[in-house]
Amino acid sequence: QGTIIVQVRAAILGEEYILLLADDRTEITRTERIRNDFVANVSHELKTPVGAISLLAEALEASPDDEDAVRRFAQRMRKESSRLAALVQDIIELSRLQGADIVHQGKVVDVNEVVAEAVDRSRLAAEAKNISVVVGGTSAHKVFGDPDLLVNAFRNLIDNAIRYSPGNTKVGIGIRDRDGLVSVSVADQGEGLKPEDQERVFERFYRVDAARSRQTGGTGLGLSIVKHVVENHGGEVTVWSQLGRGSTFTVRLPEMEEDQGAEGSPPADQ
Ligand code: ADP
């Protein structure tokens, strides 16, 4: 019935209206397709560790007296469970981001502090591969936003830099400001990315090497979370990379003026 009314109105209002309507429908179909793809991907990704845990439990039941096998199966169960936990956490984070209202719920955030917190949380992963994470350029830079989301975004970039680099290398983090934007770049000396992969790494569940990502605890959602967080803050994230030489991911966020900080209000253009 709704469609008939729209069609009658469209006939009255003329061609332009019909075209707008057609555009709208294309947009709805696109959004629906993205959502359906996401649900399909999530189900697939969840089924893999759940299936593995169930098989391993069966194997444990079948050989309770074989100490060696029990230990091996239990270890693998633990690994699959952590994968499941990471995946569930990232999915929750993504859905939390859909409803995030940075403009009304944000506050003044010191970029150096959130970066330092993110580095701290990645410390264990860095130590395990003897990778040194060095932060440069630490004059005070303030942005308006949600500190927890920002820490999580930077942590994802630093974790990736560590995950996709060989041991005994360096990860350099540079904080700068230019033209009213604070930029934070995370540069690694890792495996790098081909140009065609650089275009796609921010897509949900896109991985260059799925087996490698899974093995190292990746969920395939990290960079899409980063992109979401940064765009919610009115910023952008870009990548520069050369295969075999390393990658640099750069986040740019609108910087707060000194006097904006006093009232704790969002930047004027938000
Ligand atoms: P994952 O959980 O698999 O790391 P992400 O969304 O964080 O998922 O990243 C998507 C893919 O981009 C990764 O699987 C990896 O192939 C590639 N990637 C991300 N960061 C880097 C990096 N610093 N160096 C090389 N490749 C990277």
Describe this structure in words.
It contains eleven helices and seven strands. α7 runs antiparallel to α10 (222-232). The chain has helices at residues 2-13, 15-62, 67-98, 102-105, 111-121, 123-128, 147-163, 195-198, 210-215, 222-232, 258-263, and strands at residues 107-110, 132-136, 142-145, 170-178, 181-188, 236-242, 246-254. The strands form two sheets. A five-stranded mixed β-sheet has the order 2-4-5-7-6. β6 (236-242) and β7 (246-254) form a beta hairpin. By secondary structure, it is α+β, with helices and mostly antiparallel strands. The longest helix has 48 residues, at 15-62. The mean pLDDT is 86. Bound molecules: adenosine-5'-diphosphate (ADP). Residues 156, 160-161, 164, 188, 190-191, 193, 201, 206-209, 213, 218-224, 247 line the site of adenosine-5'-diphosphate. This is Sensor-like histidine kinase SenX3. Residues 41-257 form the Histidine kinase domain.
Assembly state: single chain
Class derived from helix and strand content? alpha+beta
**What is the averaged pLDDT score?**
86
Task: Estimate what percentage of residues fall within beta strands.
Answer: 15-25%
Distance between the termini: 39 Å
Largest sheet, spatial ordering of strands: 2-4-5-7-6
> Rough shape?
globular
Largest sheet: 5 strands, mixed
Rg calc: 23 Å
GO molecular function, one term: ATP binding
EC number: 2.7.13.3
Domain Histidine kinase: 41-257
Subcellular location: Cell membrane
